[in-house]
Design brief:
This protein is mostly helical. It has 20 helices and no strands. This is Imelysin-like domain-containing protein. InterPro entries: Imelysin_sf.
């Protein structure tokens, strides 16, 4: 598909000197400043989340007026910031909130006696959605204090204090320290072994060990049966108290669903959204069923409702997590959330994540409302056009440096000092180190070459891609070189799945080569 050429990105006469095209030496000196960004995420400031209704209303008014052609047209230099918000952050914010909805449901079921495996699966899916959203933060959208509230390294001592507060009924989720909240704290709760629970492998099936295991199993089963009834009865009270402390997640389910629907439609179909906004009226057939069921089908309706008691009894009789029942857990099944207080803390953390995600949606909606609507063409780029390109490129480069340093080089250096103690990889507790690397890289690759992979695709993604801009600016060879280098990083990260030092070194070298290409050639060409 042939796209219209981009407007010239030359620096206007009125632009300041700092917006001039950067020299390779200047980019090399500026790279050191990017590495210092990690110290800012220790900030303890906390943003005040806005109401969910405001987020949905502003997004509808801001994005619905965009023309249809803007969805497939490449973003102009003056509109880079808005294009990143509309085509990149908006769909990923919707996906992140949806994953948090699934995580909340899984956590509720687990705290009522369900298994922990669905909660872990939902946590991994929410982690992937968050990494794709936050890998390349937009200007002033994902501030360091927001990042620390949503995803900060877990601190065991702070989480233990929060569990004690939950047990005493004095938990206040909005006042927790960054090390005791967010996805990192949830990972600690879901994968940390509870005190007093053994993770030994199940006994072998040989005759010599089978007999003793039967003798020990009988008294343990009786104790498990008595503890399971107590745990089920005690799980209801923490669940209700956690719902009050968390701000009433269940009561806000309709509002969250409305925000999701409007955000998704506003990001994917800007022009036809207003016509679709009045469409969700499938509630009328439901009322018709109720009115038609009154005259002659009353007996059938009562018969249909009788199995609900048996269904409720079946749900109550479902096998609970062995940890919740007080029995012996198999390897990999242990979770600190087996304790009612820890499970209550987990529900409060998920509710806090929901509040923060809705605050992001509101901030994104305000930015879309304040920025001019994307157009297919413009007469000339504004005076701030190079500044927008520099900010987007600097954010991408910063994310690439963090991926190389945090996920690969720092663990390798720590492993070299500790010998055979093991690689201290990110998300190592949940075994999601490779998921962390691949998810962050998929976001970087999408903005570089326009190929996103498994993430939610935006209609203007190709317009944001560097390869598209390079080709339209007459740098076809450089665009092909960038694509080849991105493919080399793909192969290196795929080979790094065993998490062994040699393959991790190769992945770090591949990222370093891509970084040099971007600093020395790509960004100067785009400036």
């Amino acid at each position: 598909m042939v796209r219209p050429p981009l407007a010239s990105s030359s620096v206007p006469a009125g632009a300041s000197a700092r917006h001039a095209p950067a020299r390779p030496g200047a980019w090399g000196r500026g790279l050191l400043a990017l590495l210092l960004w990690g110290s800012a995420w220790q900030s303890g400031a906390q943003p005040v989340p806005a109401a969910p209704g405001a987020a949905s209303a502003v997004v509808v008014g801001a994005v619905a007026s965009a023309p249809a052609g803007a969805a497939s047209a490449p973003a102009l230099p003056a509109d880079w910031a808005r294009a990143q918000d509309q085509y990149w952050h908006a769909p990923r914010t919707v996906d992140f909130i949806r994953r948090l909805e699934a995580l909340q449901q899984a956590m509720d079921q687990h705290c009522q006696g369900g298994l922990v495996i669905p909660v872990r699966t939902a946590w991994r899916e929410a982690l992937v959605a968050w990494l794709r959203l936050s890998a390349v933060p937009g200007p002033d959208l994902l501030a360091p204090e927001v990042l620390t509230r949503l995803d900060a390294p877990a601190r065991a001592e702070l989480i233990e204090q929060a569990i004690e507060a939950a047990a005493e009924g004095t938990l206040q989720a909005d006042r927790l320290a960054p090390g005791a909240r967010g996805l990192g704290a949830l990972e600690w709760l879901l994968w940390t072994q509870p005190p007093g629970v053994s993770l030994k492998a199940p006994p072998s099936r040989s005759r010599s060990t089978a007999a003793p295991s039967r003798r020990v199993a009988k008294p343990a089963a009786k104790g498990a049966a008595t503890k399971s009834t107590k745990t089920k009865a005690a799980a209801k009270t923490p669940a209700r108290r956690a719902q009050l402390d968390a701000g009433g997640w269940g009561g806000a389910a309709d509002a969250v669903g409305a925000v999701l629907l409007r955000l998704e439609q506003a990001a994917s179909a800007p022009q036809g959204y207003r016509a679709q906004a009045s469409k969700p009226k499938p509630a009328a057939p439901a009322k018709a069923r109720k009115t038609n069921a009154k005259p002659a089908r009353s007996t059938k309706a009562t018969k249909a409702t009788k199995p609900s008691r048996t269904a409720a009894a079946a749900v109550a009789a479902e096998p609970v997590d062995p940890l919740l029942a007080g029995g012996r857990s198999a390897a990999g099944q242990a979770s600190r959330t087996a304790q009612p207080a820890a499970c209550r803390l987990g529900r409060a953390l998920v509710a806090d994540l929901r509040t923060q995600s809705l605050g992001l949606a509101d901030a994104l909606a305000r930015r879309l409302e304040a920025a001019p609507v994307l157009a297919v063409a413009a007469s000339a780029p504004s005076a701030t056009a190079p500044a927008g390109g520099d900010r987007l490129g600097a954010g991408w480069l910063e994310a690439l440096v963090q991926l190389r340093v945090q996920a690969l080089e720092q663990p390798l250096q720590a492993e070299a000092h500790k010998g055979r103690a093991g690689l201290p990889l990110p998300r190592q507790l949940s075994g999601s180190a490779s998921v962390d690397r691949v998810s962050r890289w998929s976001a970087l690759r999408a903005l570089a070459v326009g190929e996103e992979g498994g993430g939610p695709a935006g209609p203007g993604l190709q317009g944001l891609a560097w390869t598209t801009r390079l080709q339209q600016a007459g740098h076809a060879e450089l665009a092909e070189q960038l694509l080849q280098q991105a493919n080399a990083v793909d192969q290196a990260l795929e080979a790094a799945l065993p998490n062994t030092p040699p393959v991790l070194h190769q992945a770090a070298e591949a990222l370093a080569r891509l970084e040099q290409l971007v600093v020395r050639q790509v960004l100067p060409a785009l400036s």
